[in-house]
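User: Please predict the structure of the protein below. I'd like the answer in structure-token form so I can feed it into my own downstream comparison script.

Assistant: Understood. Taking the following sequence of 397 residues as input:
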Amino acid sequence: MGEVRLRGPSALEHVAPTSRIGALWTPDCLGAPPGVDRVSDRPVDDDDEMVTARIRGVIYDAGTVFGRGQRPTRRRLDEGVMRREIEVIRDELHATHVRVVASDPTRLDPVAAAVAEAGLGLWYSPSVFDYDPVETTRRTVAMAGHAEALRKRMGGQVTFVAGAEATLFVRGIVPGKRLTDRFTRIKADPSLLHSGHLARYLTTLAAELRPVFGGPLSYASLLFEQLDWRCFDVVGVDRYRDDRVKDRYLEMLEPHLATGLPVVVSEVGMRTYAGASASGALGFGITDTTSFVLHQLLGRLVRVRNKPGYVRDEATQASELDETLSILENSAVAGWFLASFSTPDTSYDDDPRYDRDMDGMSLVKGLPDGMESRRWPGERYDAKAAFDTVASHYANP
């Protein structure tokens, strides 16, 4: 089958602005614009997928651009390979749902369609990063139209994720031109989290989405983000379990459970190097920043490498995920999505400096030229120890 590439201007560049962009900073969720009901009063289609059975999910990255001018995480999307991967996710990993993330609908749509056609639950999750609230809203609403068309065509089993970690990824919620600037500002002045900007932004975004998308809405939040969850149908929270929070992991989710809505851990995982759970680097990983920036500018002329001193450890990744899944299975959450099936455009390497898969949270590893897949002959990836651990949990809920 053919391959899908990011090409030229995004398909979103020519979308007309939405109708109420000027009213971006509105009151609370109860003050939604005329014609947009509170979520608790909103009629739901009979075939809408509300959370009734526990979600045992995985994230599939179809190509995310984390900042303007950066390259997508996946250089190209081969549709034939992608469809075989979706079959593996369904038949061998035994996942029930896939959260598809991408920054452009030409990437997101074909994967989302393949997930729905495979009979898996779909969380359609645009990654609209590093724009101001007005432009982020415009692009997100435009992609909601794509999700709605798919929802109607596939019988309604689609949840729309209205963004992720907006405090960091939307310009203007907190000061700072780049993600790292915003993160530094928050660490220096946590009071920035109480400005109300995020809640007002998400309230208006949800109001813009309701007339466009008829299925359930969620948002993938950071634990510390403050918003009005009455605007959504499902609470999403990105929450990793490292050594600093192991003794209170579920306790930290209690405020979300207290909303009365289904709570899904929208992102959880573990990297593949020794000591990952204790390093404090789960969020940003062990990539050497200089080599990464140069690679973004110069492409293959500069090879991205890891910071020195790290050792690959698939067994520990598997063990940590085993513990985390056991805890979640015995909790009140409605489900979770593991990050991730694969880490696009990275591969295993005998040299730890260039073993980019070691920095990933994926359940499969990309293979370098000349290395054959033992599990899936002919494919350019192979199972890690964590794959079988997760598959055992998912096959025996």
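That's the full token string. Residues 95 and 285 are 26 Å apart (CA to CA).
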